[in-house]
Amino acid sequence: MNEALSFLEEWSREGMLPWTAHCAAVKHFGLSHAAVERLALKNGLFPARYQRNRMMIDVHEQLRLFSSRVAVIGCGGLGGYVIEELARLGVGHLVAVDPDVFEEHNLNRQILATPNNLGLAKVEAARQRVEQINPAVTVTAVQDAFGLANGRELLAGVEVAVDALDSISYRLELAEVTGAVGIPMVHGAIGGWYGHVATQFPGEETVQGIYRHWVAGKGIEQQLGNPAFTPAIIASIEAAEVCKILLGKGELLRNRKLSIDLLEMEVHEIPYDQPVKLVRAA
């Protein structure tokens, strides 16, 4: 590794490592892209691909992101954008969980959906996309539905779970499991022109409060559908919340819900700081 580090230091410019040098080190020393990125960051070299992060995220924080493991539960409208943004941000390990394959109705809004991907597992499309845009990021693709039965196993070693589900019952199960294993959950939901985001830490019940009147069904998305822009906006806020959690900085959407109306361009903050009693479907 000393020889590889000397190589990287020789090729770096003003503390930044160009992608061409990164790839040359992969080829010359037989290392993975992840190994080269880890070596660079641990020794204070900033990969040039992240240079626009540099004014808000220093090299030690970039290493923190690279060393993190985040689960994205659902790889459709919200999840595809979350995965794209976290990979570009430099989060080192993503666990992508979704049981479905792409269908034609996904093409209007899901960034991972293309005509060539119709019939392809969403998690496999996520893995392939991340390999294209940032091969230093590892993706564990799990083509399965998240639930109470497998939730603990899927979240093993995960630091943050992102809710990109389209089912209220499953996201309530995600809230239950994240609370049980002691990790934060970033919740997002969309429907038509509308969406909301909230962050819940263990012991909090924001998500349960949001859905306290729910009794059955998937939710308003099934009635309103979704255009292309709503998932992109809500997913971006979710990705920002994940970044802040991992870096321990900024003000999080805890004990409150950020509600966004894109039709009237209104944003509201709704507090959820009181214990609630959840009404479940029979």
UniProtKB/TrEMBL annotation:
UniProt cross-references to Gene3D superfamilies, sorted A to Z: NAD(P)-binding Rossmann-like Domain
GO MF annotation terms: tRNA threonylcarbamoyladenosine dehydratase; ubiquitin-like modifier activating enzyme activity
One GO BP annotation of this record: cyclic threonylcarbamoyladenosine biosynthetic process
Pfam families xref list: ThiF (PF00899)
Native source species: Geomonas silvestris
Gene name as annotated: chlN
Domain THIF-type NAD/FAD binding fold: from-to ranges: 50-272
Phylogenetic lineage: Bacteria, Pseudomonadati, Thermodesulfobacteriota, Desulfuromonadia, Geobacterales
InterPro entries, alphabetized: ThiF/MoeB/HesA (IPR045886), ThiF_NAD_FAD-bd (IPR000594), Ubiquitin-activating_enz (IPR035985)
Protein name as catalogued: Molybdopterin biosynthesis protein MoeB
